Amino acid sequence: MDQRYCDVAIIGAGPSGAIAASRLTALGWNVEVFESQHFPRFSIGESLLPICVEFLRETDMLADVEAQNFQFKDGAVFWMDGETETIDFHEKSAPGPATVWQVRRDKFDDTLIKCAMRQGAHVHFGHKVTGFTQNTGGVTLEIENEAGESQVVNTSFVLDASGFGRVLPRLMDLDVPSDQSLRRSCFKHVHDFADHPDFDRNKILITVHPDDPQVWLWLIPLADGMSSIGVVGADDVIQSRGSTPEEMLAAWCETSGFMSDILSKATEARAASQIIGFSRNVKNLYGDNYALLGNAAEFLDPVFSSGVTIAMKSAMLATDLVDRQLKGLPADWEKDFSAELKVGVNAFRACVNAWYTGLLQRLIFMDSRNEDISRHFTSILAGYAWDRKNPIVQDPKRFFSLMDRMTSD
Ligand code: FAD
Q1: 227 ligand 1 Cβ < 6 A
Q2: How far away, in angstroms, is 14 Cα from ligand 1 center?
Q3: Which of 84, 87, 13, 94 is nearest to 53 (CA)?
Q4: Which of 85, 169, 303, 405 has the fewest beta carbons under 10 Å from its own?
Q5: Pocket of ligand 1, candidates 43, 73, 316: which has the most ligand atoms within 8 Å of its Cβ, to mutate?
Q6: Which DSSP symbol is given to 126?
Q7: Ligand 1 centroid – CA 385 distance (Å)
Q8: Following DSSP, what letter does each residue of 344-360 receive, concatenated?
Q9: Centroid of ligand 1 to alpha carbon of 307 (angstroms)
Q10: What is the average pLDDT value for the chain, to the nearest integer?
């Protein structure tokens, strides 16, 4: 059996894996990435948040991403009961970029991992991680290639960036139930042929379904006349309108109001798929010589497009600590990784919870919104969920209970 050593092994080459590989390579470490699939490969999660631009700049990936001509994005439009409310990221309270893109993830993820490879990371596609053993001072990974051959890699540190593959949570029994309900999402790509005068391609459209405020749909315009569309809601509710992902999505979309009008001429570009029970959580985000990044750790809900942002942020935080630990310097994983990551995750979590209780929908569609509150909420929607000056970040629960009292009066 083939045996070798690397300083850091990364499981998965999605956004969190690529950002981590790039940073650690730049810091001089010998990094190997093991990815079970071949890129480009489809992934859901196409609407990015402007804070991602900062992560791409810090890892020298920005120019490559800009060269892909992805669909420009500068905000979000919410539609409910015939009314629209527009969020413009330029009106956020935090400093930093206010625009970003909506991307086909096959092309986006491929661009990022190619950057990391050019920067010196060794990436092995078609290599699935199947085993993990901790030993003195390091970890041994078992890996299987597509020919069914096994190899062993000894490493000082493992970053699990395997997304919904959740390699270490499964192998180490780290999963705990999520506090989110069981939800189902059905989604597809269409050629949108959209010429509706009120349709803004530069923004994600979030629709609250007229028949059930707990069901929402996304319309994410992509480049080249394509759009990503999807529906999210309680598993049993989504299923009540069809038996296949295609039927369920069509039924909810056709009755969605504005979004259905925009898509009146749309034709299929990619058949519908579905994910059931996407919300996940774990006991610990790190342990001896390993840490969990992105979706391998936790996933809340797609409503505020926070997934790629959290994935990239987790990679930025973890790589600083891996560097310190491998140099023999103190590395406080609890404070500087777990607690720090949770600052932003908890701000997003409070927004997701407030969305599903209807509070956030009331706030968004309030007749006269307080300007400061709007700016702080816009900041979160733009991904600036680690900005300690924002009261939503400082104390999310307090902020939303205040808002609840304010909107109930
Ligand atoms: P991934 O991008 O999932 O990458 C993980 C990689 O690991 C994959 O390439 C996989 O092949 C590989 N892998 C898995 N198992 C193994 C193994 N055993 N060995 C080797 N490799 C392995 N986020 C947004 O930011 N915006 C959105 O609009 C958005 N919409 C979403 C809609 C839905 C319905 C859902 C469910 C999620 C959405 N997300 C969105 C979340 C987003 O998809 C993820 O948060 C993001 O892709 C996480 O990135 P990652 O790097 O952690 O993992």
Answers
A1: no
A2: 6
A3: 94
A4: 405
A5: 43
A6: T
A7: 20
A8: HHHHHHHHHHHHHHTHH
A9: 8
A10: 96
Token pair belonging to 394: 């400082």
Residue type, 33: V
CA torsion through residues 341, 182, 399, 76, sign: positive
pLDDT at residue 1 in the model: 59
For ligand 1, the distance from its centroid to the CA atom of residue 337, given in whole angstroms, is 20
Write the DSSP symbol of residue 30. -
Question: What is the token pair recorded at 207?
Answer: 């629709």
CB 222 within 8 A of CB 72: no
Rounded to a whole number, what is the distance in angstroms from the first to the last CA of the chain?
69
- Using CB atoms within 10 Å of the CB of residue 336, give its burial: 0 to 12 exposed, 13 to 18 middle, 19+ buried: middle
Does residue 289 line the site of ligand 1, with CB under 6 A? no
**Residue 141 in contact with ligand 1 by CB distance below 6 A:** no
d(CA 396, CA 391): 7
pLDDT, position 308: 98
In the reported structure, the alpha carbon of residue 372 is separated from the centroid of ligand 1 by a whole-number distance in angstroms of: 33
Say whether pLDDT at 3 is over 80.
no
Which pTM value belongs to this model?
0.98
Give residue-wise pLDDT tens across range 259-310.
999 999 999 999 999 999 988 889 999 999 999 999 999 898 999 999 999 9
* Distance (Å, whole) CA 315 – CA 257: 39
Closest of 112, 162, 132 to residue 293, by C-alpha? 162
Confidence (pLDDT) at 208: 98
pLDDT in tens, 27-82: 999 999 999 999 999 999 999 999 999 999 999 999 999 999 999 999 999 999 99
Dig out the tokens for 156 from the structure.
């000082």
User: Is 44 near ligand 1, meaning CB less than 6 Å away?
Assistant: yes
Q: Is 145 in the pocket of ligand 1 (CB under 6 A)?
A: no
Q: Looking at residue 101, what is its pLDDT? A: 98
Compute the Cα dihedral for 7, 11, 12, 16 and give only its sign.
negative
Report the separation in Å between the CA atom of 163 and the middle of ligand 1, taken as the mean of its atom positions: 5
User: Which amino acid is present at 320?
Assistant: D
Q: How many residues does the chain have?
A: 409
The residue whose C-alpha atom lies closest to atom 27 belonging to ligand 1 is: 45
Nearest-Å Rg of the Cα atoms of the chain is 21
